[in-house]
Amino acid sequence: MSDASKEHSDAPAVVPWYHWVWVVPMALFFRLWLATLRFRCNVERIDDSEGPVVLLLWHDKLFVSSWVANRYFSRPVTALISTSKDGAWLVAFFRFMGIAAVRGSSNRRGAAALITLTRSMRAGNHTGITPDGPKGPALEFKTGAVSLARLTRSPFVVMGIRYDACWRMRSWDRFAMPIPFSKVVVTLEREPMPTEGEADEVISARLKARLDETSTDPA
Q1: In a domain, 2, yes or no
Q2: Is residue 4 included in any domain, yes or no?
Q3: How many folded domains does the chain comprise?
Q4: Distance CA 159, CA 68 (A)
Q5: Residue 1 lies in a domain
Q6: Is the C or the N end of the chain the one with fewer CB within 10 Å?
Q7: Residues 165-218: pLDDT tens digits?
């Protein structure tokens, strides 16, 4: 395969221009949907005056993540989104919600995405990562977020999200969409930046435990 072909195969999928005719009304519909939800959070706002953080949430709770980021954080948030077609639609949705995106994953454009996110954080922006994305396994914490925190010497914020009532899709992560007018419980917790003496796997296990505890929906 030539260099040009390799570059083309690694290029992120994008939403074709002619689909934006219905992307815009769909995004407005989802914004109205989010406006009906009754959010409850353990903090009024996150004090992020000291610098950017690495935001962590499970992939199945992405639907409300942009609303939470805009409501509880003062700094802009850049989300790591996969290069797939599904990721392209998510980027389009986030654009209307005021969230920038960097395309990449552990399998494709991972190094380039890490460099771009590092520059973004050094410019003062938070980074949002789903450690079990983009294709799972669901609720399995990959260590890429820890690597980014080490590079940027940044702490974490665990974004736990619970839905009182939701519909779930038949996707690998059983993507959840809260039922309109239902309650959403948000838990935002700071975790310290990685230390040199602690292994990435140990940090990942600790963060996974907090995500699991704060993100499990009521039975």
Answers
A1: no
A2: no
A3: 1
A4: 9
A5: no
A6: C
A7: 999 999 999 999 999 999 999 999 999 999 999 999 999 999 999 999 999 999
